[in-house]
Structure to design on (612 residues):
């Protein structure tokens, strides 16, 4: 079987490379620590060469921070509402080392304003696999910067970013709440307690309670080793509370979630506390999205129905 | 005029020492960088010796983190509601280097739970100077960990901590919102814009908007040099929004603020956006509080009416 496409998911901290066969199946993938903020000596070109080393010369498509202002080539955003199938027509070619790298544009929701780079390709991947989602859906991509995305009639209509994961890391490691001396133990009960505290904070919000991650320890009511799980619950709980309060989602909606298994499991447990229905979307959505966009852009010579 | 008392305001990062005359006036004060987390070689005793070097042997009273678990001697909290004049009876003596250091206990609001160490002395100082405040008042002590304190009939009835200043530092310096390359310029308009964004976030809260500190820059709608002021407005605005939503204060209340002038000025501007009445309390409240408590504890041999 012949290879047909190379796809790059090139973020801030990581570069992931996929080699696709003609059916759109990933036959090999590699992960390098060379995100756009962690380039090797030799810069972007060197990182790219390492990622595709030994692979045949193929069309290349790339998404993520590689197209940002601090990336290899700044590619303008597409403004919402935007049909996902417009991504293919908006690829920007970059000629580098004898290759043409086709960079997927990010999206901008000018009403907030808000932006994404990379997640638009995940959305394309989800919709490629689920026609029902393309008609109308709400997607949640949890992570360092969680994204809440509304989709209707194949278009991203609006979205919002919440810095949940980043805030969690800052509070856990670098704040007065940090218990860096203590090894952290898994404590699902502490997580649940954090989620409940966030829900009960009501319109005031979790920031009015976050200092409790310290005072509960001082009070002997929370083990130092459980602070991380409690904080995780507080922050994920706050994200859900906020999404409901801001109207990004309402009770009764089904939200499809795309992310790492362990993180999605936390969101599922938190969503139960709020009575919110969360489902997990298919895996490998970035690879699916890259393939879909490349096919629509006719980068792949023998389109399939995958 | 003879000296009568040494007062120590001993926090996490700083040690401030006051020498009082018999009228309770501060005749000399010193500030050392030796908070309980930044002790010199020789530890607490050495820091103390440096602070009082050359001063006569006098009764010593101390408040702040010096009485915490990581302080010189852990002094139990008094639980709210607690009459401020009970602090004097609850001093804990520490014998060190030929001195007796009388440590003021912190307060605990077990209902949240929440704690303070040092601020109780500021509250005592405010109430000593204002009988009206002692009857009923709301105090705001803005800072790294802002405190909202409710007072009735000379007692602290409840209080809450908000990590506004700490969160501001983390987001400004260590997050994806950081614009460390850009020198920050004073931009009152960006501050105001941040306050308004926090107010308009409604029940969802400022965390739903905080990523805008980045996207507004990407959009060319906010100068990188103004990000710090915008963030400052978002966070102080969120603190006020939250205080109103949580019922710590309501429109029409007069809130007395105790803190550094520049920070208080920011809170005053933000409070205007919310239609909230903030007034500034007298200065030197910690020194006033230390003197009051020492006098009530009869550490000072010739009580005055100050």
């Amino acid at each position: 079987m012949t290879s047909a496409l190379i796809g790059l998911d090139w973020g801030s901290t990581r570069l992931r490379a996929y080699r696709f066969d003609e059916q759109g199946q990933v036959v090999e993938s590699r992960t390098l620590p060379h995100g756009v903020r962690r380039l090797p000596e030799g810069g972007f070109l060197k990182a790219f060469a390492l990622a595709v080393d030994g692979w045949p010369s193929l069309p290349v498509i790339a998404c993520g921070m590689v197209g940002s202002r601090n990336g290899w080539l700044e590619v303008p955003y597409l403004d919402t509402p935007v049909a996902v199938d417009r991504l293919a027509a908006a690829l920007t070619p970059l000629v580098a080392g004898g290759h043409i790298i086709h960079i997927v544009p990010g999206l901008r929701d000018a009403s907030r304003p808000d932006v994404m780079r990379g997640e638009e390709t995940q959305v394309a991947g989800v919709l490629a696999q689920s026609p029902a989602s393309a008609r109308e859906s709400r997607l949640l991509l949890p992570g360092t910067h969680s994204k809440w995305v509304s989709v209707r009639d194949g278009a991203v209509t609006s979205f919002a970013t919440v810095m949940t994961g980043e805030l969690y890391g800052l509070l856990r490691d670098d704040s007065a709440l940090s218990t860096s001396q203590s090894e952290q133990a898994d404590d699902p009960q502490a997580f649940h307690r954090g989620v409940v505290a966030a829900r009960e904070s009501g319109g005031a919000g979790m920031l009015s309670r976050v200092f409790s991650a310290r005072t509960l320890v001082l009070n002997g009511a929370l083990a130092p080793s459980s602070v991380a799980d409690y904080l995780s619950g507080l922050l994920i709980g706050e994200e859900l509370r906020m999404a409901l309060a801001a109207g990004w989602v309402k009770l009764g909606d089904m939200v499809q979630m795309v992310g790492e298994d362990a993180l999605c499991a936390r969101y599922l447990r938190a969503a139960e506390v709020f009575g919110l229905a969360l489902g997990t979307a298919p895996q490998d959505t970035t690879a699916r999205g890259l393939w879909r966009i490349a096919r629509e852009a006719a980068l792949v010579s023998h389109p399939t129905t995958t």
